[in-house]
Amino acid sequence: MSELDQELSNDTPVWAVFGDLMAGLVGVFVLILVWVVGYQVQLASSLAEETSRREAEQERRIVLEQALAGPLAAGRISLSDGRIGISGSVLFGLNSAELQPEGRELLRSLIKPLQVYLADRDELLMVSGFTDDLPIQDGNLHFQDNWELSAQRALTVTRALITAGMPAELVFASAFGDQQPVASNDEAGGRARNRRVEMAPVPKMTGGGAGESAE
Fold it and tell me: If DSSP codes are grouped into helix, strand and coil, which group holds residue 67?
């Protein structure tokens, strides 16, 4: 018999050792149970938040579709994930940032529904310019590359909206060049889809964002 076994047999009752072991196991079980319950509560909270977010996004899309029902029904604009898309050929000529009469009239028709939508939700309108991946043609003295072309087109649309009545503080321009295609640039139809301007309602910045001071 080992020295340890001898000490246990002489000094420590077996039931005491068994009791200590069971107490330790119960403690571990309680810790695991607390962790599982906490994880389930956290998971339920995350699922509820995600469900609420998706419901809000769905409601947002429905409201925007209702506001733009006329232009959408006429096929003059598209709406995908809250982004209003306008074909570049409707607004501009090839490699041009000069707004065409048809495009100007279309933008004018969007002012009132967009103003109502933005006011109701206290949001801003981001105007984004996009191009295909073909390089600017040689001899074009106006734009060095697609970044510059997309930026100028976004600015042109932004200024046209403001001229037509959109409050300047509710709209801003951004440029993406050929970096976010929605179709393949390997064929003419895809490149035509990529030459576009999008308008997307976005939340106003808070807590020290642009135009606001942090407190």
Answer: helix
Q: Are residues 195 and 139 in the same domain?
A: yes
CATH number of the domain where residue 137 is located:
3.30.1330.60
pTM over 0.85: no
Which pair of structure tokens corresponds to residue 124?
């801003």
How many independent structural domains does the chain possess? 2
**Token digits for 206?**
């808070």
The answer to the question of residue 171 being in a domain is yes
Helix (H) or strand (E) holding 188: helix 188-194
* Cβ count within 10 A of residue 147: 17
**Host domain of residue 30:** 1-57
Q: Is residue 23 part of a domain?
A: yes
- φ and ψ at residue 179, rounded to 5 degrees: -80, -15
| Structural domain includes residue 35 | yes
- The tokens for 86 are 């306008």
Query: Cα-flanking dihedrals φ and ψ of residue 200, to 5°?
Result: -135, 125
Tell me how many degrees the CA angle 127-184-99 measures, rounded to the nearest 5. Answer: 35
Tens digits of residue pLDDT in 75-130: 888 988 889 999 888 999 888 899 999 999 999 999 998 998 898 888 999 999 99
Q: What are phi and psi of 47, to 5 degrees?
A: -65, -40
